[in-house]
Amino acid sequence: MALLPILRYPDPRLHKKAAPVERVDESVRKLIADMAETMYEAPGIGLAATQVDVHKRIIVIDVSEDKSTLLAFINPEILESAGEQVCEEGCLSVPGIYEKVTRSERVKVRALDPQGAPFTLEAEGLLAVCIQHEIDHLEGKVFVEHLSQLKQGRIKARLAKQARITA
Ligand code: NI
Q: Is 145 exposed, middle or buried (0-12, 13-18, 19+ CB in 10 A)?
């Protein structure tokens, strides 16, 4: 396994739309293993392939307390969503920024597992938020783009300043 570099907002590569995975093979399983390692190391609770500059529809998530429940979704699709919740979100591509975002309370998602088998999952609460956040990444959307233009401008300025300090 290998740690993968994570793109930082506002890197334009975060706005690429990811393509469906046509064949679930060893290279996809290796990418999932590397993405999981990168997510746990960060540490984070979700990571989309887009964030490691691979523009394929793959996400990994683990919202468990003890980091024991890795979920991998290949070609995820939201079939149904219901309700509304507001959750303070962060993102490994937007370090140090936490903002409230309104999303669906419950989602039903369909995807392929690492063996290429289809499954559906009904999620609510934090897991539902995480699934929506990661699928957004596959569409080229970063969570801050749910916020006002004013807030987005402030966040960009803050990240540019951080980049200057750490460069
Ligand atoms: Ni994110």
A: middle
Q: What is the pLDDT of residue 163?
A: 80
Q: What is the mean pLDDT of each run of 10 residues along the chain (167 residues)?
A: 93 97 98 98 97 98 97 98 97 96 98 98 98 98 96 92 79
Of residues 22, 84, 134, 139, which has the active-site annotation?
A: 134
68/21 Cα distance (integer angstroms): 26
Lookup: tokens for 150: 């004013």
Is the whole-model pTM more than 0.85?
yes
Our answer to whether residue 26 is catalytic in this structure is no
Cis upstream peptide for 10 (omega within 30°): yes
Q: How far, in Å, is the centroid of ligand 1 from the Cα of 136?
A: 8
Q: In angstroms, what is the span from residue 143 Cα to ligand 1's centroid?
A: 7
As to burial, measured by CB atoms within 10 angstroms (0-12 exposed, 13-18 middle, 19+ buried), residue 52 is buried
